Amino acid sequence: MEKLTSQEETAMRLIWEIGPCVVRALQEKYPEPKPPYTTLASIVKNLERKQYVKSRRYGNVYEYYALVQPEEYKKAFMTEAVSNLFSNSYKDLVSFFAKEEKISTKDLQEIIAMIEQGKLNDK
């Protein structure tokens, strides 16, 4: 799976959120400042080239839909990040976030309880 640029990732998140859509509908959902139509069309074409989305043609309009689901994307890039940045140590990853105060003791306790109850696989 090829890595996405931040612009591609923003577009992909919106496609996941709204489902199959044309570029104009995607542009309407974009946060300000909205990219020009032609820029957004290029971004979506890149997503198609990278096989994240596929298009269906209706007359002279293309509708784009996701080929890659959000969980699949998260899994691929979190695995890569843990491998590259934390030497495959999820313990080091969690420790990093705790040191940076991005995760609280209460959050960690809740995660431990979820693991012990086997609830993490239910999501």
Structure description:
Helix 1 (6-18) crosses helix 3. It is built from six helices and two strands; from the N terminus they run H-H-H-E-E-H-H-H. The chain is mainly alpha-helical. The chain has helices spanning 6-18, 23-29, 37-49, 70-86, 90-99, 105-117; strands at 53-58, 61-66. The model has no long low-confidence stretch (mean pLDDT 90).
Secondary-structure element string: HHHEEHHH
| Helix and strand composition category | mainly alpha
How is the largest sheet built, in terms of strand order? 1-2
Biggest β-sheet, characterized?
2 strands, antiparallel
Secondary structure: helix percent:
55-70%
Q: First CA to last CA: what distance?
A: 23 Å
Please report the number of helical segments: 6
- Mean pLDDT, to the nearest integer, reads 90
Low-confidence stretches: none
Task: Report the strand count.
Answer: 2
Global morphology: elongated
Beta fraction = 5-15%
Report Rg. Answer: 18 Å
In short:
The chain is mainly α and 123 residues long. Helix content is 59%, strand content 10%.
Please describe the structure with a list of short key phrases separated by commas or semicolons.
single chain, mainly alpha, 6 helices, 2 strands
